[in-house]
């Protein structure tokens, strides 16, 4: 399987790498967009107690995501725990 590697620039921080499988279909891109928005909203809530950013996820999306199995959730949870530990 080939991968598409993107580097997302972030001001005043280290860039965020993102690796995507190829071929990337329009449906997969829509699913990715939704998954990233929900994951960032959950991460913001876990780290800061609120949803951060301009693209706020709906409460129903966050609730649904919390009940749905998500293979990426373990990675996000692990990263969030690491960030919380580093902030202490």
Percentage of residues in DSSP E strands: 5-15%
Tell me about the largest β-sheet: 2 strands, antiparallel
- The number of helical segments is 3
Helix content: 55-70%
> Could you say which overall geometry the principal axes of the C-alpha atoms support?
globular
User: What does the average pLDDT come to?
Assistant: 76
What would you call the structural class?
alpha+beta
Uncertain stretches: none
Following the backbone from N to C, one meets helices and strands in this order, namely: EEHHH
Number of individual domains: 1
Structure, explained:
The chain is an alpha+beta fold and 88 residues long. Helix content is 56%, strand content 14%. The chain has helices at residues 26-48, 59-67, 71-87, and strands at 3-8, 16-21.
